């Protein structure tokens, strides 16, 4: 996932911010943009680090359109009102749609309709306003810290991670936040705009009252099962269909193209595999989607407190070990057991 950061400050001097925690989230590209003058003594500076997970070419951030609007985006958009193909970059498409928004309601409706896991920071140049938020389930972090000391250069920070050992709070994930600059007295205010509620398809009737062994011949149950399986298959496919064809190590020796025709033979996808029904179903669905020659790593993680006495069935897991071959896939595809010891 990417790292995004916005800083509101009062002096046109380099900020004393250590961006190392932010850059660790995006090893593919890091940059700072700004400072941008909002008033004679209020400035904004953006910082972003990019981790490229999908698409054919690595996209740099921030996204800046022809009007000077700036978007920092961390996440993935799967469905909703935005039609995003496998070849599109989520941030590019979102930036194009945000440019067409002219009111707070327009922006709120657009963000409310997104389906996916994301956090974003959007600067609208013509109004000197900043919009920011994250998805309703809060699957992408976005922290804020405000400084009340009048002598401090930094007045506010929004960031994916904690920076400079300041005190941070997590943003409410049910609200679109708007920061507006008040030029008359060189201050700002923050408004809260609740996300718009969208209807969710629900099962409006109770399941059939029949015995378990009768379900296979029950047409209502079979139709519901097929619908659920198709929805789950589509969700898995959307998340893995456009992953890079180069692993992290091989990408270091290539250019910004993430999916060259001749990719490497190393695994680019891993599943946390407990052996239970959930992880087994996900592994099976991924196996249907990816090409047969594309490796899939299954990672089994165990936690234990006594370093000298790991669980009996995990004693071989101190390093990555090939445990079994997966029929039909490349020899390098195997169940990999990698145990992690929880720090005391």
UniProtKB/TrEMBL annotation:
Highest taxon above the source species: Eukaryota
Keywords of the record: Amino-acid biosynthesis, Asparagine biosynthesis, Glutamine amidotransferase
Coiled coil residues, start to end: none
GO terms classed as biological process: asparagine biosynthetic process
Segments forming domain Glutamine amidotransferase type-2: 2-193
InterPro entries in UniProt: Asn_synthetase_domain, GATase_2_dom, Ntn_hydrolases_N, Rossmann-like_a/b/a_fold
Entry-linked PANTHER family: ASPARAGINE SYNTHETASE DOMAIN-CONTAINING PROTEIN 1
Protein name stated in the entry: Glutamine amidotransferase type-2 domain-containing protein
Organism: Rotaria magnacalcarata
């Amino acid at each position: 996932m990417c790292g995004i950061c916005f800083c509101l400050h009062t002096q046109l001097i380099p900020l004393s911010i250590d961006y190392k925690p932010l850059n660790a989230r995006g090893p593919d590209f890091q940059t700072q943009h700004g400072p941008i003058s909002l008033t004679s003594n209020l400035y904004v500076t953006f910082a972003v680090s990019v981790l490229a997970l999908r698409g054919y070419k690595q996209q740099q951030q921030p996204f800046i359109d022809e009007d000077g609007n700036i978007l920092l985006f961390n996440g993935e958009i799967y469905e909703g009102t935005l039609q995003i193909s496998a070849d599109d970059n989520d941030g590019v498409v979102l930036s194009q749609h945000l440019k067409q928004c002219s009111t707070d309601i327009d922006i709120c409706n657009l963000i409310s309709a997104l389906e996916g896991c994301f956090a974003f920071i959007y600067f609208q140049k013509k109004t000197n306003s900043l919009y920011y938020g994250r998805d309703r389930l809060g699957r992408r972090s976005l922290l804020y810290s405000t400084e009340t000391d009048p002598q401090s250069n930094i007045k506010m920070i929004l960031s994916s991670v904690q920076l400079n050992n300041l005190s941070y709070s997590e943003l409410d994930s049910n609200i679109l936040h708007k920061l507006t600059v008040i030029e008359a007295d060189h201050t700002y205010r923050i408004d809260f705009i609740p996300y718009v509620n969208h209807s969710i398809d629900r099962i409006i009737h109770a399941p059939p009252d029949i015995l378990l062994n009768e379900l296979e011949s029950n047409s209502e149950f079979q139709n519901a099962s097929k619908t659920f399986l198709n929805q789950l298959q589509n969700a898995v496919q959307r998340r893995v269909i456009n992953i890079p064809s180069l692993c992290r190590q091989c990408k270091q020796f290539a250019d910004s193209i993430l999916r060259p025709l001749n990719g490497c033979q190393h695994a680019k996808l891993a599943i946390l595999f407990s052996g239970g029904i959930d992880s087994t179903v996900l592994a099976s669905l991924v196996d249907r989607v990816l090409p047969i020659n594309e490796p899939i790593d299954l990672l089994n993680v165990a936690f234990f407190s006594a370093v000298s006495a790991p669980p009996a069935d995990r004693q071989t897991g101190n390093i990555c070990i090939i445990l079994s071959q997966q029929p039909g896939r490349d020899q390098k595809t195997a169940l990999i057991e990698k145990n992690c010891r929880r720090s005391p």
